[in-house]
Design brief:
The chain is of the alpha/beta class. The protein is built from 31 helices and 26 strands. Strands 3-9-10-8-7-4-6-5 form an eight-stranded mixed beta sheet, with helices on both faces. Its cofactor is thiamine diphosphate; Mg(2+).
């Protein structure tokens, strides 16, 4: 039998039980001989081993094979603790989880007996791993095992040996194996106690004052407060200036009051029914508001070292993990605007529940963004408040993995499991997490294993589903009781000293409670430093032109259509850029992609940041954009929009193909857009219907965030939409869903006079189905050129990207009087495009007014030209929400004898019709042009599927609806 080669290239730290068989000593002897002949022939770790073990240089005689074999067995035992010690760690404060210690932690497995416990072993080789906390190269096996148990099987269980990076593992080993629990100074313990008292007393105070109120208190995990405060202090000392926090409702009020430092009187006032912000009483706008444990805030607070750090807690709904990517996006934006290229000064901290961390897919989507070039924030600290039960579901029913945090192993993140009753262990784990993140710029997880003392919320009855657990909890002391008893036993703090802290805390809580009775909160100014001067819905914002001077358009157009002379472009791409250059030169035939690039370029030239993100956005799903081109020889990338202005800063324009995520990436871009209004942030779906994958962001954040939390965003969402016979999955962007979530009243026409109009400001968002490149140019620029921000949802085209009729003249982009886009109000986005025959103010001979939106217009117009239907007018409603009532009234008056038809491609129960019908009827009644019964519908009949999957059926349906729209009374 042929012997396997000696493991010369295997690092010592990666040894397994393979080396415990009876012949391993032979291989070790061969390995030693190889080392003695040439130290470079073995892995560096073996070189260090033999040097430390023998105390001699190579080529000197070594110790016996038996002694080396024994040492190797001891090293394998050490490694077993490093890998699996966490399984034996004392993590459950309730003692309910009885885990069997791993067999590989048993010294007998490695041939050691009780007789070996007091034998001394040479362990100098372990200096590299950090095992020695004192300079003693020889220790007894008993002492070694005691240190291993202390390091790996105490109140903290470490998972880090899955990390493939040797330097990272060694960094962790050193800190884990040299840490001595309960080694804090008296002063440090006093600080920890003070923070724990605050966290505990806060919950007790709320429970006493508002016995029946839901608050999702922190009882059972009060150690989170001193842990988070230690994390913040440590991060600040390491150079962090700003931390963005996201968390669910459990413990949120406590974190707001004791960590972020939201005034306690403000929190207490929110518990008092009927208290409303002062500006509401004056008739101001605050939207719907939200329950107190969903609200966010931001404050500057001092750290123990005297440094000030900015903390912001992002508002979020009850979808527990939906806020994760929002926080990461906001953090990335902070890093961009503060030029934090090294990602040292701005950091994210996410808190999770155990059930949601393992059960919610957006957790993985967010983790997966952590190291992507245009999405990384240099690492996030994750803290899991591990109740050991998700609402009523036991861990065995809520996950398939041993730990709720196992998903983080996919990202090679270290995981620190810590007993939530041991406040000093929690503080240490949080401090080490901060050090890891600041040193390695990578994610880290702190899993605080705790419990809920009062169930899911304070009025819940947990004994329904966890009777055994809650019998134990009933008699279990609080973490504060445990810590106070510990300090008293060791004589670190006297009882009277502890009592003084309690009295101080209670005095402040009572004082703040009294102040809350007369406290009238003011609406939190949602406009941070960057947002100064921006208006809320109650403040009129003037309209602005969005046209650009012709010479600027020409110059920028040349910049975005020019590739470097040494660049070898694909011949098809080269032709595309040549055609674009021709469009700019002649000023005619500007297509969709060129119009978009011009909008981006002009905004960049004006000093705005532009970011476009989504799946395959660099090229564009339909191979139309080509914002980034690839050299066919070198593979290098070139982006013309990165060279719009002289010395353009990095990332001023960012276009980035994202991971195959909708929920996570849209949430990221939403968070990014909220940081600074002087930015155009766009997310594009690969196909419009893919937005289904991020419906929570649309429902809970984008459509209602300003109403609930007074937070504005100008995020642009591009959703390819249009019926081209591509089946139900690639036709509809579910336009009806976005319109259904619009909050305008269908039966009330708002003030439409231009100088008084606040229609868009008072609406929750804008929904468009734009049909010309010029109008797309203007709607993008309009997002920036006004004094407020609203989300913009664009039903983007597919076949119109190359449709020969879907072209614009460059004169429609400029701001010169007399050109096609200029009217008495200047150059702006056209909310409605009237019939192209340029009819007079009154056209009594027109028998049919067809209103439509989007791509179907071009098919209607083609049919109209084919049949010569001069008595039919076609108007395009480019802005569906909010409805342009003034322009609809104008067109209804223009055609007093015309039947009014709404034509769409989508089924009757989908598309714009359910939204537009009552609003069109309201407009018709207002100008005495009939009523709801007089409105005609032309489109597909109601359907469960959005479209047919058969090309022939699609073609027949499309032909029929176009003909019916124009000629129904002639057929």
């Amino acid at each position: 039998m042929q012997k396997p080669p000696a493991p010369r290239s295997i690092p010592l730290s990666r040894l397994t039980d393979n080396f415990l068989d009876g012949t391993s000593s032979v291989y070790l002897e061969e390995l030693q001989r190889a080392w003695e002949a040439d130290p470079r022939s073995v892995d560096e770790s073996w070189d260090n081993f033999f040097r430390n073990f023998t105390g001699k240089a190579a080529s000197s005689p070594g110790l016996s094979g038996q002694t080396i074999q024994e040492s190797m067995r001891l090293l394998l035992l050490l490694r077993a603790y490093q890998v699996n010690g966490h399984i034996k760690a004392q993590l459950d404060p309730l003692g309910l989880e009885q885990r069997v210690p791993p067999q590989d932690l048993n010294p007998a497995l490695y041939g050691f007996t009780d007789a070996d416990l007091d034998r001394e072993f040479f362990i100098g080789v372990w200096r590299m791993s950090g095992f020695l906390s004192e300079n003693r190269p020889v220790q007894t096996l008993r002492a070694i095992l005691r240190r291993l148990e202390q390091a790996y099987c105490g109140s903290i269980g470490y998972e880090y040996m899955h990390i493939p990076d040797r330097d990272k593992c060694n960094w962790l080993r050193e800190r884990i194996e040299q840490h001595v629990p309960s080694n804090y100074s008296r002063e440090k313990q006093a600080i920890i106690l003070d923070r724990l008292i605050w966290g505990t007393r806060f919950e007790n105070f709320l429970a006493q004052k508002w016995t029946a109120a839901k608050r999702f208190g922190l009882e059972g995990c009060e150690t989170l407060i001193p842990g988070m405060k230690e994390l913040i202090d440590r991060a600040a000392d390491l150079g962090v200036d700003s931390i963005v926090i996201g968390m669910p409702h459990r413990g949120r009020l406590n974190v707001l009051g004791n960590v972020v430092r939201k005034p306690l009187r403000h929190i207490f006032s929110e518990f008092s029914a009927g208290i409303r912000p002062a500006d509401v009483e004056k008739g101001g706008y605050t939207g719907s508001g939200d329950v107190k444990y969903h609200l966010g805030t931001s404050y500057d607070r001092p750290t123990r070292s005297g440094k000030r750090i900015h903390l912001s807690l992002v508002a979020n709904p009850s979808h527990l993990e939906a806020v994760d990517p929002v926080v990461i996006g906001k953090t990335r934006a902070k890093q961009y605007y503060s030029q934090d290229v090294e990602r040292k000064r701005n950091m994210a901290v996410l808190l999770h529940g155990d059930g949601s961390f393992s059960g919610q897919g957006v957790v993985y989507e967010t983790l997966h963004l952590s190291d992507l070039p245009n999405y990384t924030t240099g690492g996030t600290i994750h803290i899991v408040v591990n109740n050991q039960v998700a609402f009523t579901t036991d861990p065995k029913s809520s996950r398939s993995s041993p730990y709720c945090t196992d998903v983080a192993k996919a990202l090679n993140a270290p995981i620190f499991h810590v007993n939530g009753d041991d406040v000093e262990a929690v503080v240490h784990a949080c401090a080490m997490a901060a050090e890891w993140r600041c040193h390695f710029k990578a994610d880290v997880v702190v899993d605080i294993v705790c419990y809920r003392r009062f169930g899911h919320n304070e009025i819940d009855e947990p004994n329904f589903t966890q009777p055994k657990m809650y019998q134990v909890i009933k008699g279990h002391p609080t973490s504060l009781d445990i810590y106070e008893k510990k300090l008293a036993q060791v004589g670190q703090l006297k009882k009277e000293d502890i009592a003084r802290v309690h009295d101080k805390v209670m005095a402040i809580l009572n004082e703040e409670f009294q102040s809350s009775k007369d406290y009238i909160p003011k609406t939190q100014d949602w406009l941070a430093a960057y947002w100064t001067g921006f208006k809320g819905p109650e403040q009129l914002s003037r309209l602005r032109n969005t046209g650009v001077k012709p010479e600027i358009l020409k110059n920028l157009g040349k910049a975005i259509t020019t590739l470097p002379p040494t660049f070898t472009a694909h011949r098809a791409i080269k032709k595309v850029y040549e055609q674009r250059a021709q469009m700019i030169e002649t000023g005619e035939g500007v297509d969709w992609a060129t119009a978009e690039a011009l909008a981006f370029a002009t905004l960049l030239a004006e000093g705005n940041h532009v970011r476009l993100s989504g799946q395959d956005v660099e090229r564009g799903t339909f191979s139309h954009r080509h914002a980034v081109v690839h050299d066919q020889k070198s593979g290098e990338k070139y982006c013309p929009l990165n060279h719009v202005v002289k010395n353009q800063e990095d990332e001023m324009f960012t276009v980035s193909n994202s991971s195959l995520s909708e929920f996570g990436v849209l949430g990221f871009e939403l968070g990014y857009s909220m940081e600074n209004p002087n930015s155009l942030v766009c997310w594009e779906a690969q196909f419009g219907d893919f937005s289904n994958g991020c419906q929570v962001i649309f429902d809970q954040f984008l459509s209602s965030g300003e109403a609930k939390w007074l937070r504005q965003t100008g995020l642009v969402v591009l959703l390819p939409h249009g019926y081209d016979g591509q089946g139900p999955e690639h036709s509809s962007a579910r336009l009806e869903r976005f319109l259904q979530m619009s909050d305008d009243n269908p039966f009330v026409i708002p003030e439409m006079e231009v100088s008084l109009r606040k229609q868009i400001q008072e609406c929750n968002w804008q929904v468009m189905n734009v049909t010309t490149p010029a109008n797309y140019f203007h709607v993008l620029r309009r997002q920036i050129h006004r004094d407020f921000r609203k989300p913009l949802v664009v039903m983007a085209p597919k076949n119109l990207l190359r449709h020969q009729a879907c072209r614009s003249s460059l004169s429609e982009f400029n701001d010169v009087e007399g050109h096609p886009g200029f009217d008495k109000q200047g150059t702006r986005f056209k909310r409605l495009i009237k019939d192209q025959n340029n009819h007079a103010e009154v056209e009594s001979g027109v028998r049919r007014l067809v209103l439509c939106s989007g791509k179907v217009y071009y098919e209607l117009d083609e049919e109209k030209q084919r049949v010569g239907a001069k008595d039919v007018a076609i108007c395009r409603v480019e802005q569906l929400c909010p409805v342009p009532y003034d322009l609809l009234q104008r067109e209804l008056r223009r055609y007093p004898n015309a039947d009014v038809v709404w034509c769409q491609e989508e089924p009757m129960n989908m598309g714009a019709f359910p939204y537009m019908a009552p609003r069109l009827a309201t407009a018709m009644v207002s100008v005495e042009h009939g009523s709801f019964e007089d409105l005609k519908y032309v489109g597909r009949p109601p359907s469960a599927a959005t479209a047919t999957g058969f090309g022939s059926v699609h073609s027949r349906e499309q032909k029929e609806l176009v003909q019916k729209a124009l000629q129904e009374d002639r057929m």
